[in-house]
Amino acid sequence: MKYDIVIIGGGAAGxxxxxxxxxxxxxxxxxxxxxxTKVLAKVKISxxxxxxxxxxxxxxxxxxxxxxxxxxxxxxxxHTFASGDTVEWFESRGVDFYTTxxxxxxxxSDDSQTxxxxxxxxxxxxxxxxxxxxxxxxxxxxxxxxxRTKNKMFTSNKLVITTGSSKNIWEQxxxxxxxxxxxxxxxxxxxxxxxxxxxxxxxxxxxxxxxxKYSKLPEQSGPLLITHWGMxxxxxxxxxSFGAREMFDKSYQNTAIINWLPEHxxxxxxxxxxxxxxxxxxKQVLKHNPFSLPTRLWKSLISYSEISEKLxxxxxxxxxxxxxxxxxxxxxxxxxxxxxxxEEFVTAGGVKLKEIDFKRFESxxxxxxxxxxxxxxxxxxxxxxxxxxxxxxxxxxxxAIAK
Length: 403
Known about the structure:
Largest sheet: 7 strands, mixed
Distance between the termini: 25 Å
Shape: elongated
Oligomer: single chain
């Protein structure tokens, strides 16, 4: 079957590439090949089914910093197509949206099907052929690209790879000479078994900082969620993203240092407690929570600091003050493994970035071979950033082909 453009991968980057290529080149014959029986499956489940399709970080340099792998390479592309362009693109195609306090952007419908329908309608409009159940078994380079699936042969002038973390396609690209960085999990939560958080499932601290004791990685801040298996929430997920390879190398064994009060240091908390001993001497420590922590967590940290529930602030000795101050700002929790983050799964790994011309998202090894999305060794923290990588890559590929 002969096409001008064959796109392998029916996800976000694949569809965004396809419809933008088609809009700029209405005479091109384009098809999308998808291994599974459904296209845009990851879009469907993203954001709990609501689809956090980008983030309200509109400055390219700032936006690029959300990518542990790809920060330098994406800076130029983001000057061409970034979050603001994405919002405008979807809005001009009928998608109303809203922005949450943390900058995440969702369709106003709170339904990922809104985003999916945009792509399916445009694919139909531009007569883009969509083939599902097409597992690629061989890719042959040449003046004409040959893509063979288990039951069909496709030829094309240009080939676009947008298959995400597909080991099969990475093997095909390796056969074509590309160096593949071995994938490891990113965006995972921490397995922690500790009596301080035992029974606190569902407790959320709106702003906390997380660092790793045996690492030089910078600390990460944001909401932190206590779960039945340990800790999750944006602060932990960001740390897992930046520490993906390091954590993998250490078999996910480390010590998380938690500051439940990131606006405070150990010394400032100690000073605040000293003030409480003078200003509120007869108030019970348990009932008088000056730091606005969730009640269950406050009670647990007090107990762990060997402070009786009946003690007043004036009753605390120096050892108890130091222990509580330490727990509030420098609590150490042993991390013994990871867990998957909901239905979403992101990997750190893929095609080596030095082998890609990021002005075109084109292979430096093979002309007319384009690669975008998570097939590249690019990944981001949670919050719509991985989708933004897909949109940016797809847009620039469409521009390169148009020229």
